[in-house]
Amino acid sequence: MKRFTGQDRAITDGWRPATRAVRGGTARSEWGETSEALFLTSGYSYDRAGDAAARFAGEQVGMTYSRLQNPTVEMLEQRIALLEGAEACRATASGMAAMTAALLCQLSAGDHMVGGRAAFGSCRWLTDTLLPRFGIATTVVDARDPQAFVDACRPETRVFFFETPANPTLDVVDLAAVCGIARDRGITTVVDNAFATPALQRPLEWGADVVAYSATKMMDGQGRVLAGAVCGTQDFIDNTLLPFTRNTGPTLSPFNAWVVLKGLETLDLRIRRQSESALAVGRFLEGRVPRMLHPGLASHPQHALAMRQMAAAGPIFAFEVADRTQAHGLLDALQLIDISNNIGDSRSLMCHPASTTHSGVAEDKRLDMGVTEGLLRLNVGLEDPLDLIDDLDQALRAVGL
Questions:
Q1: Which residues sit opposite 160 in a β-bridge?
Q2: Is 259 exposed, middle or buried (0-12, 13-18, 19+ CB in 10 A)?
Q3: 375 Cβ contact partners less than 8 Å away, ≥ 6 residues apart
Q4: Kind of pairing between the strands at 157-163 and 137-141
Q5: Sorting pLDDT into bands at 50, 70 and 90, what band is 28?
Q6: Is the pLDDT of residue 3 over 70?
Q7: 8 Å CB contact between 114 and 153
Q8: Most buried of the four, 162, 172, 213, 400, by CB within 10 Å?
Q9: Using one digit for the tens of pLDDT, what is the confidence trace for 259-313?
């Protein structure tokens, strides 16, 4: 089987992003299939016992077990690495598997991590609950302020971990500034880039060391499967991340990898169209709701920074209404947009984070990160934006807005 590795990487590195998204990492069997093949196998056979021994010793190239390697998963990993501009990538079973692995593979008892305050609820559980259980101290800061990272640093600080844009408040982190602070101190920066994807933002180009994804979101793009990915240097993936994932087993299934491969082919087209629609919907809402949180609008306090780091603001934004009662009433009045806690889908989805994605976060911490009782998060899909505006208009009128 042919694989685009080694000297072939010199060819693929010269491809532009649209070509990488369609052909990056493609490997063909002797049948010459044009679409990526789906290898549904847990194990592999060997011609001789010596071949098995050589593969396990790392002396022979080849597959040993699908917890470690699978041809379909490997194609996805190579494609994401090419899109990200990374040396290597490791796929995982979900986005949270990617975040957890990216942190635990390099942190030990006695270490310290600085995390962004505004984050997905499960990511805050990692920083606030899981890591301290293992003797890893964490400090949560307002990641919008680079000086906050400086002030939080300790001699034992090993990792900076943050999202940009953040879920669900759309806080934007100055990548060059924060990654520069980390680099000067020998600290590894782990960036959750799920809201933007490499189609809109490439944190490695701004100095990040590791980029982690929930590929469930925009990379799949149609709400079908769970998947995650971690990108970094070949050394980090092979010698820091792989020993953790191979022995703990957050393995991506070949079928899910194949689905995400198909999603990547249209990622750029989808995310740019959805970004345009989200901007139109955001402009409509701006005059109707008490507060808008959309990095693509000039009213966002970090609009200039977002536009400097990102090719577009993405399909996801948030806004506030008065309280939970009004937020739930608006959701219940929707006729086209679905009530759902997922994002990145081709269908428009809206949720109330305080009672769903961030319901497990203590109230004082939710409010500190900006997740108020009136906050609503909207994922704008591929529908006609005028139909979305019509739906939001009638829902807003139903709750007196």
A1: 114, 189
A2: buried
A3: 168, 169, 318, 319, 320, 327, 352, 353, 354
A4: unpaired
A5: confident
A6: no
A7: yes
A8: 213
A9: 999 999 999 999 999 999 999 999 999 989 999 999 999 999 999 999 999 999 9
